[in-house]
Every structure is written in structure tokens, then in C-alpha cells.
Specification:
This protein has 710 residues and is an all-alpha fold. Helices cover 77% and strands 1% of the residues. Among the domains are: 177-232 and 287-417, no CATH class; 433-606, Tetracycline Repressor, domain 2 (Orthogonal Bundle), CATH 1.10.357.30; 614-627 and 637-691, no CATH class. Helix 6 crosses helix 14 (395-414) and helix 23 (640-656) packs antiparallel against helix 24. Residues 52-221 form the Exocyst complex component EXOC6/Sec15 N-terminal domain.
Length: 710
């Protein structure tokens, strides 16, 4: 039973499945029936399914047949009506054909006109399209024509801008035209042409500024000179009316003092003379002298073309080469100041241009690049100045060179370049300047001492007296009371030497100006240089005169008198230095003048020379005397030998009467001469008593009476 039930159940399921498949076949499109049929053949009941399908087909055929039978009469009626309409349709066709023929005949001209209108409309449309295309192409052609004109007029940066607009704005709109393709192919060539031409302009610019660096630097240094003069005027205005004299007033007083006695010094031919000529003229700047537009154009062009780095490297490389050429001094630069001036002008011009480029371009040069160039320039410049300045033997040229270096440093300092090393080098040149001054003053002192007559200065009027007093600080109440004519105790070389010492101090002070030194440093420099002048130059000159072979006793005595008065004048030299430096002598670390020692040493040397000359002279008397020691004549007249000796000593004492007796060293000379005189007198008497008899005693009295008289 269970098997039967199971078989029935399976049969029901199969029947239900077949029914579902049939419904699916009926409702599904024929193209999609494949999967349904596959499910039938996948099972084992396809035979029963075929039976089921045949049964369903038969049922549908019966339904179709029923429906056809139901609608057959209506179909027959429709056919009958359609046959009736056929005749009417033929008539209508004939009428339409006839009407069409008439219409074709009547509308033939209209068709022709319509064809003509059609052609006109087509032409009009073509013309309109052509105009539109031409309007689209005309801006391209105009831009290209504008580009060529800009290229011809060498307006390369606008040409590059035009090329950019042409390439990115206009050509894409008409890119399908053949002439546009030609333009597109020419664009790289045009860019290269613009690039090459702009580079050529840059090369011309670099060559131009290399040639005109001298003029640019000269202009910049004139501007710095004018600014410095203006600053000095502003600084000096508050000092008007102050109690202490300014340096300039001290110079004026000094020039007045030495005007009539000191030899005419060379005129300063340095930088400071230039400003007087063009004080009121407006000096143009670097941008007024140089057209920087080629640099800007070339920089913009290379930036637009994406080659800015290449341009920067090329520019810096070329400028480094030019810097090395500028920094190479000419071999004869040391001969004239113009050689130094041209050298400095070129350096200043180079860095003024670079500073302008630094501040007017975005990164073409940077501060690190400028600093590197300046370090190289500073080292080479200092080395060149050390080498060439060592050849300078003229102190005026060294002073002018110093002024030029200061102006050079001040000019570059305005543009932000560090110049401390230049001022340090000027301190080295200061020592060389002092040496050249010492050499010059050695010749001056030698000329003064050689041309002096070594006799007191006579004055015959009050005017002459005041003139000498104005040249040399001398005070003597007794001399003032004496009537004219009268004489100063010293000779002419005293005021001349005194004024030359002051002129030397003034020359040292001129070098210290604008070196940014403190008053103490200036005072110390002047005192040290003056000490060298006194202890070395003047001392050597005095020693050479004293040791001269043909110098007489009168000259030596006058030298003693002169050095005594010069020694007293040292305190006035101290006051002179204090007035021009504003540094009091009581200040700590202030160097003292060694003039007292110098003049004392010279005086001692003169005294020693007097001693030597007298000793030699008396020895000559003894050696040349022809005295008859064995004579028997008892005359009352003294021997010729003693008479000549006494005459010589009398004339010697006459010379010593000019010496100031209150001087210790002078008294020593007088005492020495008296002792020497007595020595030889005693020797003479000794010989008389040894070789003569007692009756010669009256001769002794005669000689001693003459000695007592002397």
C-alpha cells in the first residue's frame, strides 16, 4: 500500500511539474524556451511530458477551430465590402493622377525657382560658414602678424607673451587647418630665436657694464662724498660757539703760524677736491646710467621658457669672470692716484650693479652669492693695496690714497657691504705713512739745519719781534724791555724746527680723519709718531750736524742754546696735541712726548764735541809750539807760546759768554774749559821752572797777570 501511495504521490508531483512547464512554455518567448526544455530532458518523464504536450496542443486546436467558425461570416462580409470599394478607389486614383499631372505641369517653374532658391540658400550657408571660419582664423593671423612685428622690432618679451597667447588661446580653435599646423611647427623655432636674441642682448649688456663700471663707480663714490660732506656740515653746526676749538680751527691757527716760516707743502690732490666742483650738481644713480631692461627681459623670457636656472647660472658665471678681471690691478697702479681711483671705481661699479640686480630681481642673485663675491673682492683688493702701497714713497700720495680708500669703504658700506677689514688695513698703511713722513721730515730738518747761520735772530722793529714770537713760544721779560735793535738768543732753525714739528703733527692728524677712531686712539697715534720724529729723525739730524767735521765752536754753542729753548717748547707741543685731539694729558695711558730727552741728548753731544775740539786744539798748540827751553835770555816778555794759548782761550771764553749761566750743563762746560786752561798753564809753568833759573820768575808773574786779566 505504501508503495502505491508513494507512486501516486510521485505521479502527482510529476503531473504538477509538467503543468507548470507547459504554462511556462505558453507564456515565455520562444527565444527563452531552451532552459525550460532542458529541465524536461534532464528528468526521466519526458515521455509522459510529450503526451501531456500533445494533449494540450489538441485542446488549443479545438479552441481555434471554434473561434474561426464564430467569426467566418464577418470575414466574408468584409471581403464583399472591400470589392465594392475597389472601383471607387480606381476612380480616385485616376483623379489623383490627373491632378498630379496638372500640378506637375503648373509647378514646373516653381520647382525651378525652388531649386535656384535652394542653391542660393546653400551658397548663403556656405558663405556664412566661411565668414565664421575666417572670423575665427583672423585673430590667429593677426596675432601671428603681431608676433612677427615684435620680433622685427626686438620686443622679445612681448613677442613671447604673444606667442603664449597664440599657442594656448587661438591656435586650439583652428587646429584642424593646415596653416595652423605650420604655425604650430614654427613655435619651437620662434622660442629658440627669442631665447637666442635675448641672450645676445644680455651679452651686450654684460659687455656694456664691464666697460662702464668705472663711470658707475665714480658716480656712486661722488654720491657718497656728497652725503659725507652733508653729514659733516650737520655734525659741525651744533659745535658753533663751543668753548673748545674744533680741529678745523686748530688747523687754521696752525696754518697761520707756519705760513711765513715753513716750506710750502704740496697741495692735496685727493678726493676732497672733487666735491667743490660739483657740489650743487645732482649726481645720477646707477639706474640712470645703465639700462637694466635687457637683464629683466632675458630673465622673464627664460622664466617663461622654463630655463630660469640656466639663465641664473650663466649670469653668475659671467659676472664672476668679470669680477676677477675687475679685481686685477694694473701693474703701474702705484704710480699715480688716478690708477687707484680707476681701480676702486671699477670695483664699486661692479658691486653697485650687483646690488641693484639683487633688489630689483627675484632671485637672479642672492645675498649668499653677493657675500661670496665680496669676500673674494675684499681679499684680492687688500692684497693688491698692500703690494702697491708699499711702493709709495710720497706721503701726500699715501694720504690721498687713504682718503680714497675711506671713500671707497664708505661707498660700499652704504650698499650694505662689510668694510671693517679695509679700515684694519688702513691702520697698516698708517705705519707706512708715518715712515714716509719721517723720511720727508728728515730732509726738511736737514735743509733747515744746513741753511741756518747759527747766530741769534736780530729784530729791528716791534713787527718783526711779534712775528718771531708768533712763530715760536718765547717769553723773556728782560728782552722785551730792551730797545730795538735787539736779538733773540736762538737762531732761525728754532722756530722753523718747532713749526715743522707742528706741521708733522698736523699731517699725522690728517691721516687719522674718517678712520672711525676714538680721540684717545688718535692722540696715541699722534704722540707715538711725534716721538719717533723727535727721538729718531730730529735727533739724527742734530747728531749729524754736531758730528760734522767743519763745524765751529760758535755753531756748537748756538746748538746748545737752541736745543735748550726747543726743550722748553715741548710743553707747548703737548698743549697743541691736546687742543687738536681733545684728550687731556692727565688721561690714563696717554703717551708722553720724549722731546726733553732728545734735546738733552743733543746738547750733551754738543758739549762732548766742544770738549773734544778744545782738547784737540790745545794739543795742536803744544805740538806746534817751537819753544826754546834752554834759552839764557831773561827778558821780561812772556813766551809767544803762552801768549797764543791765552789769546785762544780768551776768544773761547768770548763765545761762552752767550751761554745761559743758569743751565747746569753749560756751567759744566765753562768749568771744564777753566780747568783745562789751568791744567795747561800749570804744565807750562812747570816746564819753565824745571828748565830755567829763578830769575825767570818775573816771566811767571807776567803770564799769571795776563791769565788773571783773562
Amino acid at each position: 500500500m505504501e508503495r502505491v501511495k508513494m507512486a501516486e504521490a510521485e505521479s502527482l508531483e510529476t503531473a504538477a511539474e509538467h503543468e507548470r512547464i507547459l504554462r511556462e512554455i505558453e507564456s515565455t518567448d520562444t527565444a527563452c524556451i531552451g532552459p525550460t526544455l532542458r529541465s524536461v530532458y534532464d528528468g526521466e518523464e519526458h515521455g509522459r511530458f510529450m503526451e501531456k504536450l500533445e494533449t494540450r496542443i489538441r485542446n488549443h486546436d479545438r479552441e481555434i477551430e471554434k473561434m474561426c467558425n464564430f467569426h467566418y461570416q464577418g470575414f466574408v462580409d468584409s471581403i464583399t465590402e472591400l470589392l465594392k470599394v475597389r472601383g471607387e478607389a480606381q476612380k480616385l486614383k485616376n483623379q489623383v493622377t490627373d491632378t498630379n499631372r496638372k500640378l506637375q505641369h503648373e509647378g514646373k517653374e516653381l520647382v525651378i525657382a525652388m531649386e535656384e532658391l535652394k542653391q542660393c540658400r546653400l551658397q548663403q550657408r556656405n558663405i556664412s560658414a566661411t565668414v565664421d571660419k575666417l572670423m575665427l582664423c583672423l585673430p590667429v593671423l593677426e596675432m601671428y602678424s603681431k608676433l612677427r612685428d615684435q620680433m622685427k622690432t626686438k620686443r622679445h618679451y612681448p613677442a613671447l607673451k604673444t606667442l603664449e597667447h597664440l599657442e594656448h588661446t587661438y591656435l586650439p580653435q583652428v587646429s584642424h587647418y593646415r596653416f595652423c599646423k605650420v604655425m604650430v611647427d614654427n613655435i619651437p623655432k620662434l622660442r629658440e630665436e627669442i631665447k637666442d636674441v635675448s641672450m645676445s642682448d644680455l651679452k651686450d649688456f654684460l659687455e656694456s657694464i664691464r666697460k662702464h663700471s668705472d663711470k658707475i663707480g665714480e658716480t656712486a663714490m661722488k654720491q657718497a662724498q656728497q652725503q659725507r660732506n652733508l653729514d659733516n656740515i650737520i655734525l659741525q653746526q651744533p659745535r658753533i660757539g663751543s668753548k673748545r676749538k674744533s680741529k678745523k680751527e686748530a688747523y687754521t691757527i696752525f696754518d697761520t703760524e707756519i705760513e711765513s716760516t715753513s716750506p710750502k707743502s704740496e697741495q692735496d690732490s685727493g678726493i676732497l677736491d672733487v666735491e667743490d666742483e660739483e657740489d650743487d650738481e645732482e649726481v645720477p644713480g646707477a639706474q640712470d646710467l645703465v639700462d637694466f631692461s635687457p637683464v629683466y627681459r632675458c630673465l622673464h623670457i627664460y622664466s617663461v621658457l622654463g630655463a630660469r636656472e640656466t639663465f641664473e647660472n650663466y649670469y653668475r658665471k659671467q659676472r664672476r669672470k668679470q669680477a676677477r678681471l675687475v679685481l686685477q690691478p694694473p701693474s703701474n697702479m702705484h704710480e699715480t692716484l688716478d690708477g687707484y681711483r680707476k681701480y676702486f671705481n671699477q670695483i664699486v661699479g661692479f658691486f653697485v650693479v650687483e646690488d641693484h640686480i639683487l633688489h630689483t630681481t627675484q632671485g637672479l642673485v642672492n645675498r649668499a652669492y653677493i657675500d661670496e663675491l665680496w669676500e673674494m673682492a675684499l681679499s684680492k683688493t687688500i692684497a693688491a693695496l698692500r703690494t702697491h702701497s708699499s711702493y709709495c714713497s710720497d706721503p701726500n700720495l699715501v694720504l690721498d690714497l687713504k682718503n680714497l680708500i675711506v671713500l671707497f669703504a664708505d661707498t660700499l658700506q652704504v650698499y650694505g657691504f662689510p668694510v671693517n677689514q679695509l679700515f684694519d688695513m688702513l691702520l697698516e698703511i698708517r705705519d707706512q705713512y708715518s715712515e714716509t713722513l719721517l723720511k720727508k721730515w728728515s730732509g726738511i730738518f736737514r735743509n733747515i739745519l744746513d741753511s741756518d747761520n747759527y747766530s741769534p735772530i736780530p729784530v729791528t722793529s716791534e713787527e718783526m719781534y711779534k712775528k718771531v714770537i708768533g712763530q715760536f713760544p718765547f717769553q723773556d721779560a728782560e728782552l722785551e724791555k730792551q730797545p730795538f735793535p735787539k736779538k733773540f738768543p736762538f737762531s732761525e732753525f728754532v722756530p722753523k724746527v718747532y713749526n715743522q714739528i707742528k706741521e708733522f703733527i698736523y699731517a699725522c692728524l690728517k691721516f687719522s680723519e674718517d678712520l672711525h677712531l676714538s680721540s684717545t686712539e688718535v692722540d696715541d697715534m699722534i704722540r707715538k709718531s711725534t716721538n719717533l720724529l723727535l727721538t729718531r729723525t730730529l735727533s739724527n739730524s742734530l747728531q749729524n750736524v754736531i758730528k760734522r767735521k767743519n763745524i765751529g765752536l760758535t755753531e756748537l754753542v748756538q746748538i746748545i742754546i737752541n736745543t735748550t729753548h726747543l726743550e722748553k717748547s715741548c710743553k707747548y707741543l703737548e698743549e697743541f696735541i691736546t687742543n687738536i685731539t681733545n684728550v687731556l694729558p692727565e688721561t690714563v695711558h696717554t703717551t708722553k712726548l720724549y722731546g726733553t730727552t732728545t734735546f738733552k741728548d743733543a746738547r750733551h753731544a754738543a758739549e762732548e764735541e766742544i770738549y773734544t775740539n778744545l782738547n784737540q786744539k790745545i794739543d795742536q798748540f803744544l805740538q806746534l809750539a817751537d819753544y826754546d827751553w834752554m834759552t839764557g835770555d831773561l827778558g821780561s816778555k812772556a813766551s809767544d807760546y803762552l801768549v797764543d794759548l791765552i789769546a785762544f782761550l780768551r776768544s773761547t771764553f768770548a763765545v761762552f759768554t752767550h751761554l745761559p749761566v743758569h743751565t747746569f750743563s753749560t756751567c759744566g762746560v765753562v768749568i771744564f774749559v777753566i780747568g783745562l786752561y789751568c791744567k795747561y798753564l800749570i804744565e807750562g809753568i812747570f816746564f819753565i821752572f824745571v828748565y830755567s833759573e829763578v830769575p825767570l820768575l818775573p816771566k811767571y808773574y807776567t803770564v799769571t797777570s795776563q791769565c788773571r786779566f783773562s
